[in-house]
Amino acid sequence: MEITVPYVDLLLDNPPARAPWLQYKIENGISPRLYYSQITWIDQMKTGQDGQVWYRVNEKYGNYGDIFWGAARAFRPITKEEMAPIRPEVENKRILVDVTYQTMSCYEGDSEVFFTRISSGAKWNVRGERVDTWETPVGRFPIWRKLLSLHMSGGTTGGGWDLPAIGWVSLFVGSGVAVHATFWHNNFGEPMSNGCVNARPEDSKWVFRWSMPKVSYDPGDTVVSMPGGTTVEVVES
After folding, report:
1. What are the strands, taking DSSP E only, across 109-229?
2. Phi and psi torsions of 179, nearest 5°
3. What does each C-alpha distance from 154 to 44, 180, 183, 189, 223 come to in angstroms?
4. Measured in Å, how far apart are the chain's first and last C-alpha atoms?
5. For the stretch 119-145, what's the b/e string if a residue is b when 16 or more beta carbons lie within 10 angstroms of its beta carbon?
6. What one-character DSSP code corresponds to residue 72?
7. pLDDT at 158 over 70
8. 125: DSSP letter
9. Among 170, 153, 162, 164, which residue's Cα sits nearest to residue 205?
10. Where does the pLDDT of residue 24 fall: very low under 50, low under 70, confident under 90, or very high at 90 and above?
11. 213: cis peptide before it, omega within 30°?
12. pTM (two decimals)
C-alpha cells in the first residue's frame, strides 16, 4: 500500500516501541506517522464501531517488530501493472550516477533514456567535517537486490538513521547503498543522504521497473547472484 495523503497517524499495536525512530517519537510526545508516497505492507484489516476501516501495518523487510494500525482511507494498493518491467527485452542497460553534478542517467546502449536529479551522500562525515571521499561509493556495482518496500536503518549512535516504509529500493552495494524513494526532502541536486542515492518517488519507481532483475508482485523482493543485475556506475566528474 502507498500513502496517498500528506500524512497518516499510526496507533502502535504491540508496545513497547522497538525501532529507534519510534522510541524517539514516543519519548518526545510525537505521534508516529507515515507520509505521502511511503510504501508499506498491510496484513490485516478491521472495522471500528464507527464504521471506519483500519489497516494493520506490519513491515515485511527490515522491521524491528513494531506493528501499527492506520486509517484505511490514507492508503491505496500498489497494482501489478505498476510493478511491470519497462523494456525488459533490452539487455544492454546501465545507470550512471554523477555525484559531482548530483544527477542520474539511464542508458540503453549509448542512448540516454532517462535523466533526473538526485541527492547522494556528501563529502562530510557525521560530525559535519569535510572529508576526501564521497559517502556514496564511487565505482561500478551491479544491482543485487530489489524490494518494493524496506525499513532502512544504519550508522552509529548519535549519527545513525532509522526510516520505515522506504519504497522502490534498488540495492547495489552490499553495505546497503541503494537507489530509493525519498519522502523527507525534495532538495534534489544537493548532497543530502547518508550514502544512498535519494530520488523522487516517481523516479526511483521508474528505475526500479526498468532495471534488472525483475521483481514479482509477490513477494515484492528479489535477490540475484553475481554477476548481478543492471550496473550502477557512480562517478565523480
Report:
1. 111-117, 139-142, 145-154, 161-171, 178-181, 197-199, 221-223
2. -85, 125
3. 29, 15, 18, 23, 20
4. 38
5. bbbbeeeeeeeeeeebbbbeeebbbbb
6. G
7. no
8. -
9. 170
10. very high
11. yes
12. 0.93
CA angle 56, 72, 75 (to 5 degrees): 100
pLDDT digits (tens, 9 = 90+) for 27-84: 999 999 999 999 999 999 999 999 999 999 999 999 999 999 999 999 999 999 999 9
Q: Which helix (H) or strand (E) holds 93?
A: strand 93-98
Is pLDDT of 191 > 70?
Answer: yes
Residue 151 pLDDT greater than 70, yes or no: yes
Strands 53-57 and 42-47, how do they pair? antiparallel
pLDDT tens readout for residues 95-121: 999 999 999 999 999 999 999 999 998
CA distance 140 to 142: 7
Q: Cis ω on the peptide bond leading into residue 227 (within 30° of 0)?
A: yes
Judged on CB neighbours under 10 Å (0-12, 13-18, 19+), 228 is middle
Q: Which three cell numbers stand for residue 57?
A: 501495518
Q: Supply the pLDDT for residue 124.
A: 65
Dihedral of the alpha carbons of 215, 93, 152, 56, in degrees to the nearest 10: -30
Give all domains of the chain, ordered by start, each with its CATH number.
Answer: 2-77 (no CATH), 82-235 (2.40.440.10)
**Please, are residues 44 and 55 in contact by the beta-carbon 8 Å criterion?**
yes
CA distances from 230 to 42, 126, 226, 233 (A): 30, 30, 11, 10
